[in-house]
């Protein structure tokens, strides 16, 4: 089997220009191979094109050029095997549906029977720790709880690939830490491929098996990939964690991006 076939996602020389002019590429020469089941992080300064790249992978926007394959098939739009978790859960949840109904929405659209829907939503509500809140409406939930509902709903649809665009950026530090650990636990259980966008170095090292660092835009590309071999769950206070943090941070500083580094 060739190297390419083992990969779930293969991106070659991909570029995007919003205005169609080649000299105004937001991202360019993006080359990336993400094996099935990997937890991959896209890390980069604000405005470098992380969301652009993730939205192309989701199929929400078109690429201007280059190649993009999932399991050897060229991708031309959205697909059931991919799902996005957005930064703002309010935009993703239906305010008139309660927690369980929100989680079951996609299944209902697919005409999954009520009994099966209930058993699937039971499982994912438990996984994200919301079983006791299933009757609540989104307006009765905290930001962290809403984000968990969104995650449970995406997981209930059972996509192979989870795309996450700074999903915890709006949460307070404590809630963020809890939900990050939950995501690791879920990923360990489900073995899904995750592409997670962040501009927070600590979050990147806490979560990812590999971190792709995007250069400052315009014309941004993936300028380095870090392998993070620390075992999960990771301890942000461990010296080994700190060593990697310093390496990644100095990478940013060395490339004139220090102003975009998030410190804790
Ligand atoms: N629909 C659009 N039309 C034109 N330009 C756009 C559009 N969307 C994004 N851009 C531009 O593309 C560049 C990259 O934007 P993008 O949102 O992908 O960056 P990002 O890395 O996700 O930033 P952030 O960390 O702030 O979310 C920016 O200069 C932005 O202004
Ligand atoms: Mg973005």
Question: How would you portray this structure in words?
Answer:
This protein is α/β, with parallel strands linked by helices and 264 residues long. It has 2 domains: 1-81 and 159-235, P-loop containing nucleotide triphosphate hydrolases (Rossmann fold); 94-158, no CATH class. The protein contains 8 helices and 10 strands. The strands form 2 sheets. The protein has a 6-stranded mixed β-sheet, with helices on both faces. A hairpin with a 2-residue loop joins strand 4 and strand 5. Helix 4 (114-127) packs across helix 5. The longest helix is centred in the C-terminal third of the chain and has 18 residues, at 173-190. It starts with 6 loop residues before the first strand and ends in a 10-residue tail after the last helix. The model is unreliable at 1-5 (pLDDT under 50). The structure holds adenosine-5'-triphosphate and magnesium ion (MG). The site of magnesium ion (MG) has 3 residues, from helix 1.
Give me the secondary-structure topology.
Elements: E1 7-16, E2 27-35, E3 39-43, H1 50-58, E4 65-70, E5 73-74, E6 82-85, H2 89-92, H3 99-109, H4 114-127, H5 143-156, E7 161-165, H6 173-190, E8 193-198, H7 201-207, E9 210-214, E10 222-227, H8 239-254
Parallel strand pairs: 3-8, 3-9, 6-7, 7-8
Antiparallel strand pairs: 1-2, 1-4, 4-5, 9-10
Helix pairs in contact: 3-4, 3-5, 4-5, 7-8
Keywords: ATP-binding, Nucleotide-binding, Transport
Pfam families: ABC_tran (PF00005)
Protein name: ABC transporter ATP-binding protein
């Amino acid at each position: 089997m060739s190297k390419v076939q083992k990969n779930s996602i293969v991106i070659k020389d991909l570029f995007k220009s919003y205005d169609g002019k080649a000299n105004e590429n937001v991202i360019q020469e993006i080359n990336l191979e993400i094996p099935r089941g990997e937890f991959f992080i896209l890390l980069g300064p604000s405005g470098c094109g992380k969301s652009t790249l993730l939205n192309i992978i989701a199929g929400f926007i078109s690429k201007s050029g280059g190649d993009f394959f999932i399991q050897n098939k060229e991708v031309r739009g959205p697909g059931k095997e991919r799902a996005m978790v957005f930064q703002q859960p309010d935009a993703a949840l239906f305010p008139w549906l309660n927690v369980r109904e929100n989680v079951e929405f996609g299944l209902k659209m697919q005409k999954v029977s009520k009994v099966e829907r209930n058993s699937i939503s039971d499982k994912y509500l438990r996984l994200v720790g919301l079983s006791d809140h299933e009757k609540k409406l989104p307006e009765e939930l905290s930001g962290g709880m809403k984000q968990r509902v969104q995650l449970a709903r995406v997981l209930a649809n059972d996509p192979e690939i989870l795309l996450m665009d700074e999903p915890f950026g709006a949460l307070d530090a404590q809630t963020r830490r809890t939900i990050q650990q939950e995501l690791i636990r879920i990923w360990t259980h489900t073995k899904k491929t995750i592409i997670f966008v962040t501009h927070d170095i600590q979050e990147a090292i806490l979560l990812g098996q590999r971190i792709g660092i995007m250069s400052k835009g315009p014309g941004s590309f993936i300028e380095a990939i870090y392998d993070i071999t620390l075992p999960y769950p990771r301890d942000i206070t461990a010296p080994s964690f700190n060593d990697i943090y310093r390496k990644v941070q100095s990478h940013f500083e060395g490339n004139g991006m220090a102003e975009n580094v998030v410190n804790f």
